[in-house]
Amino acid sequence: MDIIFVHEVRIDTLIGVYEWERQAPQTLQLDLEIGLPQTVACQTDNINDTIDYGKVVERLRQTLAEQHFLLLEALAEHIAQLILSEFGAPWVRISVAKIGLLRGVKRVGVCIERGKRL
């Protein structure tokens, strides 16, 4: 399986269980690994034969501006399902982290995998 990766995407959104977390947008860091449904782009050199990672990032920015979550787990699941359904990926691995939320901790987050590796 060929995999596109997009690492260290920074997106500001409202998220958190506690009221103080939802007072202002927090910066999240996303790391995405997206399985490709086919490998023909290697031969054709055509963007239409792959998943356009620019469009994926644009779509994520849009959805996180419109929708807010309490848990990182729910946000990661939403992103995974979006990529699987809207972009036709057979498999994804999504890591979502809050940056500098806890004193002395650089990042705290969750990593999920959905779909099947071909």
From TrEMBL:
Pathway: Cofactor biosynthesis; tetrahydrofolate biosynthesis; 2-amino-4-hydroxy-6-hydroxymethyl-7,8-dihydropteridine diphosphate from 7,8-dihydroneopterin triphosphate: step 3/4. One of its GO terms (molecular function) is isomerase activity. Its EC number is 4.1.2.25. It comes from the Bacteria. Pfam families: FolB (PF02152). It catalyses: 7,8-dihydroneopterin = 7,8-dihydromonapterin; 7,8-dihydroneopterin = 6-hydroxymethyl-7,8-dihydropterin + glycolaldehyde. Residues 4-114 form the Dihydroneopterin aldolase/epimerase domain. GO terms for cellular component: cytoplasm. Keywords: Folate biosynthesis, Isomerase, Lyase. GO terms for biological process: folic acid biosynthetic process; tetrahydrofolate biosynthetic process. Catalyzes the conversion of 7,8-dihydroneopterin to 6-hydroxymethyl-7,8-dihydropterin. Belongs to the DHNA family. This is 7,8-dihydroneopterin aldolase. It comes from Chitinivorax tropicus.
